[in-house]
Design brief:
The chain is of the alpha+beta class. It contains 3 helices and 8 strands, in the order H-E-E-E-E-E-E-E-H-E-H. Strand 6 and strand 7 form a beta hairpin. The protein binds nickel (II) ion. Nickel (II) ion binds next to helix 2.
């Protein structure tokens, strides 16, 4: 496994549309392992492949110590709306309030190419949507209603 560099604000790759994954080989598995290691090292709760310079539809998400890998993810259902604070590993130190559906259902593939479905609410729902947005070149700053002031940021913990 290897740590990858996280692309930061202003990197044009963060705005590129990604292509679907079609080969579920050892190269993909290596990439997924690297993404997970990079996410943990950066203390993030989610990471999308474009954030490490790979323009493919791959996301990883952390739910405490459990890790989810979703290839070619797609939101197939969403419900409600919640406004909550978000950050992004590509925007260190920046946080804002973002409205998003409260619950989503996502379909995709696992690392072997098998169909998976994930239902998320609360933080998981938010992280799923944030990471899937990355795959379309959409960043949380595009959806922010209000950025947090430095004293508000002090109270926060992890970032997506
Ligand atoms: Ni992000």
């Amino acid at each position: 496994m290897a740590l990858r560099n996280i692309r930061k604000q202003g990197d044009p790759l963060l705005r590129q549309k990604t292509v679907p994954v079609s080969r579920f080989n050892s190269q993909l598995h290596q990439l997924l392992d690297d993404m997970i290691e990079t996410m943990f090292k950066a203390e993030g709760i989610g990471l999308a492949a474009p954030q490490i310079g790979i323009s493919k539809r791959i996301i990883v998400i952390r739910d405490e110590d459990k890790v989810m890998e979703i290839i070619n993810p797609e939101i197939i259902e969403s419900e409600g709306e919640i406004i909550d604070v978000e950050g992004c590993l590509s925007f260190p130190g920046l946080y804002g309030e973002v409205p998003r559906p409260a619950r989503v259902e996502v379909k995709g593939l696992d690392r072997t190419g098998r169909d998976i479905k994930i239902s998320g609410q609360g933080l998981i729902s938010r992280v799923l949507q944030h990471e899937i947005d990355h795959l379309h070149g959409i960043l949380f700053i595009d959806k922010v209603l209000r950025f947090l002031a430095p004293e508000e940021i002090k109270k926060l913990g992890e970032k997506a």
